[in-house]
Amino acid sequence: MNLTISGHHLEVTPAIREYVQNKLERITRHFDHVIDTHVFLAIDNLTEKEKRQKAEINLQVSGKILHVASAAQDLYAAIDTLMDRLDRQVLKHKSMLQNHNHVAHKRMPDNGEAAAA
């Protein structure tokens, strides 16, 4: 898995990098077929009193790119909600891949035999 962490108006410290990597371990524990991951962390100055911390992620899996974004007052809280949302999307994607609710071909009635009888 390729991991890219970038920051906008923010220096990505080793503590933040390690925190994101530890949170991503939960995602890779559920779904191992992750190809590429881009994490984007930003601080938006909306007003002088309020700073809004944003976290976004693009997770590329086989055949699909999952995008999740979150915002909070604290960067670590934004990363936590981001990973919770991403975890739900990954589990949903995994269940869609493993959905076996189709009828087997040998169990399907053959239309040629029904018309001949």
UniProtKB/TrEMBL annotation:
Task: State the Pfam families in the record.
Answer: Ribosomal_S30AE
Cross-referenced InterPro entries:
HPF/YfiA_ribosome-assoc, RHF-like, RHF/RaiA
How far does the signal peptide extend, from start to end residue?
A: none
SUPFAM superfamilies documented for this protein? Ribosome binding protein Y (YfiA homologue)
Query: Where do transmembrane segments lie in this chain?
Result: none
The UniProt keywords, alphabetically, are: Translation regulation
PANTHER family annotated for this entry? 30S RIBOSOMAL PROTEIN
NCBIfam families referenced in this protein's UniProt entry, alphabetically: yfiA
Per UniProt, subunit arrangement is: Associates exclusively with 100S ribosomes, which are dimers of 70S ribosomes.
Name of the protein described by the UniProt record:
Ribosome hibernation promoting factor
Encoded by which gene? hpf
